[in-house]
Amino acid sequence: MLTPELDAWLYGSRVARFTARDVGRAAPRVELAWDPDAVARWGYGARVLSHLLPMDPDGAPPPARVTAWLDGLMPEGRVRDHMAMDAGVDPEDVVGFFGAYGGDTVGALQFVPVGTRPRTGTDVARPLDDADVAALLRASVARAGGQGRSQHLTSSLPGMEPKIGLVRTGEAWFKAAPDQPTTHILKVARAADSPTADLVDTEAAALDLARRVGLTSIDAHVETFDDMRCIVVSRYDRVPDEAAPGGLRRVHQEDGAQALGINTRDPERKFQHGRAIPSLAAIAQVLRDDGARPDPLLALTALNLAVGNTDAHAKNVSLLRRENGTVALAPAYDVSMHLHHDHASRVFAMDVAGERDMDALTGADLVAEGVSWGLPRRRALRVVDSTLDALRGALGEIDRAAHPGVPPEAWRTVEERTDALRASLD
Predict the structure, then answer these.
(1) Mean pLDDT across the chain
(2) Which of 304, 311, 278 is nearest to 361 (CA)?
(3) What pLDDT is recorded for position 59?
(4) Domain HipA-like C-terminal, which positions (predicted)?
(5) Among 65, 139, 279, 284, which one has the highest count of C-beta atoms within 10 angstroms of its own C-beta?
(6) How far is it, in rounded angstroms, from Cα 293 to Cα 287?
């Protein structure tokens, strides 16, 4: 049985200790105790770990907040259940889970046994050929479907879609050691006969557009390993750094649901759908509270509406929390084109100026949303206008032959939506 206590390290310092209470109960209560040296390093009230969990050595945060935040680092659905069973822990035991998978999480946090330090380069990654990568991808599909546990994973990746994290060096692929940072995420394409078989193709294309607009640093392309088709996405929370162990520096981040304290054990809670939270306004306020401008969030929302990305929920918007304490909106990720499919939902994941019907939302609604955050109207208009103008230019410049899996109707839908949003600004 794994220990109910773990130390958490961030940016080379022990930041906190997480302790599970009442482990035998259905949902153990998790308590957090700040490390005094971390408080001295970053300061009282610092939010280097999370907006939800400001450092306060005199008062521990409520266990419900701690548990909700940790839940946000974990996979969703059956993937979580089966990874927990692989490790011999209860899926509800988040501390036990990270005792097995906490060496490499999303962001920069590392969990280690109490009194120890994260290992630095002591383990060696295992080289993989195409058949090996395909086997890992098949195992991730089996986990998501509630079957099979033959390929033990080394890190925790949130989300519902089958995915794995690997290390890429040049053209070679490696399975990371338990404490080694991965460089890429590979997400499995849906079956060829699925009505959304082109989802990974439109995601790679949408991220290509986002790069050209200046909203992401991610590289993405579709690749096939044996018979397993997937999108390969570079991680924005891993930065090349020769001084760091293994040549990679971890950058901390948290998603919008974590920052707002929303427990997404129920995956529907990451969507707004008329609720008070999550909301774009609440995420914008988090940015402002932490000293960052919310303008990039408005630009990202304009991009999501233009490309028809209905899945821009609170877990698909994240914030970087840098070592120096500064905060910024994370690069765009998980952006796809959905509205060229007849069966697609026409409901946006978040409300914009009180509206969530994708066919009714206008450029003027985007401006009004930005104004509701406190942006001057002229500034909000400039952000929306420049984003849509840059997107229209990117649509003309992008090499569509590099995205052969994107159907013509998808490109046409994005063009039409971009033009309509621009026209409605007038």
Answers:
(1) 92
(2) 304
(3) 86
(4) 155-391
(5) 284
(6) 6
For residue 118 the two structure tokens come to: 């994260």
CA distance 270 to 263: 8
77-114 CB burial, b ≥16 within 10 A, e <16: bbbbbbbbebbebbbbbbbbbbbbbbbbbbbbbbbbee
Respond yes or no on whether the N-terminal peptide bond of residue 28 is cis (omega within 30° of 0).
no
- % of residues, the chain, pLDDT over 90: 78
CB contact at 8 A, 164 and 101 = no
Identify whether the C-beta of residue 333 lies closer than 8 Å to the C-beta of residue 236: yes
pLDDT tens, residue by residue, 250-266: 999 999 999 999 988 88
| Tokens coding 410 | 């998808």
Sign of CA dihedral 370, 49, 253, 255: negative
- 233 torsion bin: left (phi>0), alpha (psi -120 to 50), beta (else): beta
Q: What is the pLDDT of residue 147?
A: 53
**Residue type at 91 in one-letter notation:** P
User: How many residues would you count in the chain?
Assistant: 426
Q: Mean per-residue pLDDT for 160-183?
A: 89
**137 Cβ contact partners less than 8 Å away, ≥ 6 residues apart:** 162, 164, 186, 188, 225, 228, 230
pLDDT in tens, 263-277: 888 889 999 988 999
Q: Label residue 54 left, alpha or beta by phi (over 0 means left) and psi (-120 to 50 means alpha).
A: beta
Q: Which residue has the tokens 């939270």?
A: 277
Mean pLDDT of 101-120: 92
Give the largest CA-CA distance in the chain.
63
What are the tens digits of pLDDT across the range 132-144?
999 999 999 987 7
Alpha helix (H) ranges present in 261-337?
280-289, 295-307
* DSSP structural state of residue 16: E
Q: Which of 150, 255, 235 is nearest to 186 (CA)?
A: 235
Q: Report the C-alpha gap between 37 and 47 in whole angstroms.
A: 15
**CA of 101: how far to CAs of 2, 178, 284, in Å?**
12, 7, 31
Radius of gyration for the chain, computed over Cα atoms and rounded to the nearest angstrom = 21
Helical ranges in 102-220 per DSSP H: 130-144, 199-213
Tell me the C-alpha distance between 309 and 312, whole Å: 6
Phi, psi of 175 (to 5 degrees): -85, 125
